[in-house]
């Protein structure tokens, strides 16, 4: 695997090195981001990506296949590629356009290790044959239960929580490793400890092997959007973050004590049920906050297909 510094020197087109800002709060292994779409039709109002791409519907990237061909020739065989880090790879238009499907069809036979992050469900109903045959794990984002009416406002364009749970269950039954992302936890939205514990229990029952969790870290645009859209809850969130929040690496964080209180029900229930768990970009360490082979679930990726070209040959070529 290329080192972090050498990976960042690569000139890539559709792939990018994850965490290009080299944040000290990111513990992810070296991996590459791949977003088949620009923008996201789910339009979750807390989205951080809108701060640099704006609010726009999912639009497939131009010449995606050609750009991918050029990029995969430059990265080490068997690299981790995280699909859907800032734009969901399974918006509604994917059913007809199929750009994510074509990307998987190209990457999986080559033996790349793939992590799919999504609120969509099409991966389980259309692409499961492909995903279950490759070096693939899925990290579906499931933020609460369908009974949470406030959460419906926050994620109004995404599939329901129940639909996401059903998709994760189907993928798990097919042998695909699942690490559920219960994130972000947002005060006044999905922070009820009883709901959180119930969700973790449901996730464990469906066969998930890991929980990844984090608190909401505000950007200026997302905080303003929450205040504008959510009514009384939005005003409460706005006041909490503007009065108590601290800017950390471009995000407005709540104080550590507040974040620990929000995350504790997630990790304690995961620990009780024997799941692996990790907190994401929280700066929290120790077994009470992190007990997993990786922070992003990439250690769960199975090795069903060996890379077609060996790492030794790649290193010799690059020397």
The mean pLDDT is 93
Q: Strand fraction band?
A: 15-25%
CATH superfamily: Aldolase class I
The strand count comes to: 13
What characteristics describe this protein?
38% helix; alpha/beta; five-stranded mixed beta sheet; four-stranded mixed beta sheet; TIM Barrel; 14 helices; 319 residues; globular; single chain
Description:
This protein has 319 residues and is an alpha/beta fold. It has a single domain (4-308), classed as TIM Barrel (Alpha-Beta Barrel). It is built from 14 helices and 13 strands. It has helices at 4-9, 50-53, 64-72, 94-97, 99-107, 122-125, 128-131, 149-154, 161-173, 193-205, 220-229, 232-244, 256-272, 311-318; strands at residues 15-17, 32-34, 37-38, 59-60, 80-83, 113-118, 136-140, 179-185, 210-215, 246-248, 251-253, 276-279, 290-291. It has a five-stranded mixed β-sheet. Strands 8-9-12-13 form a four-stranded mixed β-sheet, covered by helices on one side. The radius of gyration is 19 Å and the shape is globular. 45% of the residues are buried.
């Amino acid at each position: 695997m290329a080192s972090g510094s050498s990976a960042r020197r690569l000139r890539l087109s559709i792939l990018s090195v994850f965490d290009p800002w080299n944040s000290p709060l990111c513990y992810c292994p070296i991996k590459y981001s791949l977003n088949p779409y620009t923008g996201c039709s789910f339009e979750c109002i807390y989205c951080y990506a809108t701060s640099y791409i704006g609010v726009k519907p999912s639009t497939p990237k131009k010449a995606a296949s050609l750009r991918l061909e050029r990029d995969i020739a430059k990265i080490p065989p068997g690299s981790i590629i995280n699909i859907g880090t800032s734009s969901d790879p399974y918006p509604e238009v994917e059913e007809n356009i199929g750009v994510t499907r074509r990307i998987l069809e190209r990457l999986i036979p080559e033996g790349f290790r793939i992590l799919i992050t999504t609120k969509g469900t099409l991966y389980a109903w259309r692409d499961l044959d492909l995903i279950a045959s490759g070096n693939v794990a899925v990290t579906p984002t499931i933020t609460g239960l369908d009974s949470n009416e406030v959460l419906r406002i926050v994620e109004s364009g995404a599939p329901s929580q129940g639909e996401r749970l059903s998709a994760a269950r189907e993928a798990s039954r097919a042998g695909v490793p699942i690490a559920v992302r219960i994130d972000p936890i947002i005060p006044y939205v999905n922070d009820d400890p009883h709901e959180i514990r119930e969700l973790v229990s449901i996730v464990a029952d469906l066969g998930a092997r890991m929980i990844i969790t984090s608190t909401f870290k505000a950007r200026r645009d997302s905080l303003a959007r929450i205040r504008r859209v959510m009514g009384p809850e939005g005003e409460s969130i706005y006041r909490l973050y503007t009065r108590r929040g601290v800017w950390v690496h471009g995000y407005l964080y709540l104080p550590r004590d507040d974040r620990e209180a929000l995350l504790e029900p997630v990790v304690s229930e995961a620990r009780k049920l024997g799941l692996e768990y990790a907190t994401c970009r929280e700066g929290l360490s120790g077994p009470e906050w992190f007990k997993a082979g990786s922070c992003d679930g990439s250690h769960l990726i199975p090795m069903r297909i060996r890379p077609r070209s060996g790492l030794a040959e790649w290193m010799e070529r690059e020397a």
